[in-house]
Amino acid sequence: MIYNPIPDHTFRVSGSVAYRPPTLFETKLDARTVITLPPPSVSPPPIVAKGNENLGPEQIISYEATYQGWFLKHRLRVRADLFFNHISDLLGVNHLGQSANVGEGDIYGGEAGVEFLATRWLSGFANYAYQEVGQNFTGLATRSAPRFKWNMGLRGEWENGLSGEVSYHYYGATTYPISAAFTQFAPLGGFTPPNPRVGSYNLLNLRGAYRFWQQQAAAGYTREAEVAVSVFNALNDMHKEHPLGDTIGSRVMGWLTLKF
User: Which residues of 10-40 are buried (b: 16+ CB within 10 A; e: fewer)?
Assistant: First the structure.
């Protein structure tokens, strides 16, 4: 449902429901893996994986409410969103290694942001997002995501061909589920089990470019060529986006873009 009480201001409310039926793997699987280690090592217990023909489909019910408004002769746009998702009968694996509907949970939060055109050559944006997860899932079925995210940026583009961008992103800390197999087999492989907690981190990205050639084609489009340098994670804030992911540092790249 969309409502426009006055020009340039819009309210929107939506709802939806979606299902995921169980796969053949989740209903028919029947596997048992035994790992035997030579003495004096202690062999881990057998790994059992079994399907379940009595599974129900997953279901997610979603609600969203949005406001969008234009101000200052369309030089400023404001947006605000609220959302609520209810997940039920999530398909996963129970403590016996059998496929099962493992529980239900709620994911809800909101986002607010602005986009603005300061001058003909300078524009920018800023937004803030919050998300909360309430659940009775356990193990690998657990849902997780950062509670807080900040994003902001500026872009400048000049008639002499120069352009530049700067964007800043902040992600809050969170904890992700990790398979118990990492803890079981870590001593055998001589490595440390991954830390399930991912700390907060900052991303500052920079880009500078120069358009050194531009020509109007007979067909009506514009031919152009541009060189650019971009810096990802300019602060070199070493971090991981997931406990099993790579450690991410800074990266500098050069670009040559031709459009005919």
Answer: beeeeeeeeeeebeeebeeeeeeeeeeeeee
